[in-house]
Amino acid sequence: MPRMRMNQAIAQAIADEMRSDPTVVVFGEDVAEAGGPFKTTDGLLIEFGPNRVRDTPISEMGFLGAAVGAAATGLRPVVEIMFIEFLGVALDQLVTQGSKFRYLSAGKVTVPMTIRASVGAGLGFAAQHSQTLESWMLASPGLKVASASGAENAYGLLRSAIQDEDPVVFLEPRRLYAVRGDVKVGSNAAIPLGQARIVRSGEDVTIVAFGSTVRVAVDAAEQAEFSAEIIDLQTLVPWDRQAVLESVARTKRLVIVEENPYSFGWGTEIATKVASELFGDLEAPVLRVTTPDVPVPFGKALEERFLPSTSYLLAQTRYLLETGTLPRPWWEGGPT
Amino acid sequence: MGLPIPVKVKKRSRVGIAAALEPNDPVTCTYRGHGLALALGLTIESVLGEIMGRVSGSVGGMGGSMHLCEPSVGLLPTFAIVGAGIPVAAGAGLTAQVLGTGQVAAAVFGDGASNIGAFHEGVNLAAIWKLPVVFICENNQYGEYSRIDKTTPIENIADRAVSFGIPGRIVDGQDVDAVIEAVSQAAARARSGAGPTLLELKTYRYAGHSRGDAAPYRPEGELEQWLQRDPIDQYRERLIQKGLIDFKGAQKLEESVANRVEEAVGTVLRHQQPGPQAMFRNILADETGRR
Ligand SMILES: Cc1ncc(C[n+]2csc(CCOP(=O)(O)OP(=O)(O)O)c2C)c(N)n1
Ligand SMILES: [Mg+2]
Question: Where in chain A is the domain with CATH 3.40.50.970?
Answer without folding.
Answer: 3-182
